[in-house]
Amino acid sequence: MSPKGCYRFGEFVLQPSTRLLHRRGDVVAVPAKVFDCIAYLVEHRDRAVGRDELASAVWGRVDVSDGVLNQTMLAARRALGAGGREQRPIRTVIGFGYHWVDPVDIVEAAPQPSLPPRQPPREAMAAATTGPARRIGMFAVLGVAVICVVAWFAWRLHTTPAPGERGERHGVVVLPVATSGEADSAWLRLGLMDLVAERLRTDGATVVPSDTVVALARAFDTSDADDLARLADAAGADVVIASRATREGDGWLVEVRTVHGRASPRTARGHGRDALEAGVAAADAIAAELGLRGSAPAATADLPMRELLQRIQAATLGDRLDEARTLAARAPDAQRRDPEFAFRLAKIDAQAGRVDEAARALRALLGRVGAEHDPRLHARILDALGVIALQRGDAADAEALHGRSIALLRAGGDEGQLGKSYADRASARFALGRDDDALGDVAQARAAFENAGDRLSLVVLDGNLGAIDLQRGRYREALPLLEEAAKRFETMRIHYAALNEWDAAAQAYLMLRETGAAGRIAPTLARLGERVADPRLRFGTGLTRVEILVAMGALRAARTLLGELRATYAREAPAELAGRADAIAARLALASGDDADAQASAEAASSAPASGDDSREQARNGVVLVRTRLLAGQPIDDAVQRFAARAAQATRSVPRLYVDLAQAMRAGVARDDAAARAAFEQALAGAEATRVPLDLVEVAMAYGEWLIASGDLARAGAVVEKVAPWAKTDYEASLLQTRLYHAARLAPAWASALERTRSLAGERRIPPELATPP
């Protein structure tokens, strides 16, 4: 390796020391494990590397599943501009592992990443008004619901009052404080932890945010030395500090000690009339032991208010948001007018799902906190408003707000918040359909998080690569990434993020028509849904559970759950979620044989505001509406025209195949067989192009039934055969096969298919004519 550790191959330069991959001078966004695989293979390019060796080097263990390793190598090849089947620059050695085969040159310097230039403060403030000069990046995720959960989680990770220094590691983890066990001191576990962390930060240490520590402390046994080492590695920290607070006569004693990262443990003690005074003294003492600069003594008069603030912070860190709000109401008016205090209250409201109250408070605060007076807080407010704007479906406003935040933060200082603002702006751009502007913002976010040493935010970025694959229709490729991220977040008890990832995985399985796999996720969605406060997220994931039940034929349970969800969330549900509920209700009613209710629900869903991220849902509902009108003997021309017009106005292109399907139905009613066949064939070609089983089964069901009714059994057989791979596990594919065998009078095949269809039907009613022997 060269002194600076840079390798050039083709258009790329790899710099392991800074963990950057450049292509023609631009940073390429890649997940951490993908980068590690590329780097290891390049560094050992003189030989083939075994699968176990690579897994051990990158994951630290050999029991990495073939699926995870294969998907990682697929992502590596894509990052290097190669398709999944190309064997360059990484060649698969069958039965052994992988070999880097392209020429590599060692170079003395890597190109500078194409990050926006750092601006002087005045230029950054001007850019806050005009917007950023560069329009780059996209953060493709499944949809606005996914974006908002990830944005919420990233928001939680950046709550520290002052930025840390740049570097690869944060430096210090402060664990929750052990207390004497008295009821009134329970809040000290998190409140005093946050106070010690803040004081160390003031003393010059770079400290992992308290939210991150709370999440990690749930995942690791902090009494075990090996687990402490793993916790420190996950947080990117050099030192882990534990504390204990005990009463001592009329006062308090706080003992702080290093429990990881120092050859000889350091211990310091602080005494005070109350726990906070003792905590400040102990934090300053351990800071001196660690060689940090000292800070000004804490003002004694501020301690009562300090206690209230730490009680609020402890409740917030523990997700006891109502308690935090109640405590905040006790603050005097002067404190409530403090900008940082007001910002904290707005975040509490947003985390609890009270976004309207949060938005009003943030808008008022934005007018009070000028960019020139406090650019960092101004930028944080702008970013928070952008997250809320995206939750409300206003992606254009969100993009502008995040852009103004970025312009302020590029002046320097807070890399963690800068990374978050880039990721949030990329989310907004995705919602606008700006996919080609995508990976730039991801690269900017990744570089900023790397600079800040923010490991957990990097995990969030990596977890969303699965959602990117989902949006691009690569459901099979997305699943290992989504499920691994879900398990990681669940282990860390980050319930919002885990629920989001499992929900995305369940929807991917539904797209693949793998109902059983989706059904296995449903209990997890229910369990995690009880642990989150946001009503929109609970409603959205509840609707996914309804979809799973419908797909399984559990119609009564689906109807009951849908009714409960509507009764609980109808008043506060945004219009797009209400529209999704109506669309699901239409399919449920159609499966139950209630054509009138299906039509009413489909009509309601078609009137809901258009949303770019659920174009397939809207398109499928358009077909349901046309079908139910046909069953009722009603005109369909206006429904087809409205469907096509809505599809043309969507931000993201609605799969044209569903419009073709509706046109085919209209031509069939008009007895224009030539036009119907042409439209069906076009829809079928579109479904095969998407390579999404859900699309293919939807089209094959409609086209196959029409061909059978028309007597064209030869073409019907070819169409039905296209969904044969799903006939063993999917009710609709099996029913279509049964219908074909019955029409063709293939009695043995019909009997076998009918038995299988009955086993898959659940509570769905098989047409009586198909139960009669041919």
TrEMBL record:
SUPFAM superfamilies given in the database record: C-terminal effector domain of the bipartite response regulators (SSF46894), TPR-like (SSF48452)
This protein's name: DNA-binding winged helix-turn-helix (WHTH) protein
Presence of keyword Disulfide bond: no
GO-annotated biological processes: phosphorelay signal transduction system; regulation of DNA-templated transcription
Regions recorded as binding DNA: 4-102
Annotated OmpR/PhoB-type domain residues: 4-102
Recorded GO MF terms: DNA binding
Keywords: DNA-binding, Membrane, Transmembrane, Transmembrane helix
UniProt source species: Dokdonella fugitiva
Keyword Transmembrane: yes
Transmembrane feature ranges: 136-155
Cross-referenced InterPro entries: OmpR/PhoB-type_DNA-bd, Sig_transdc_resp-reg_C-effctor, TPR-like_helical_dom_sf, WH-like_DNA-bd_sf
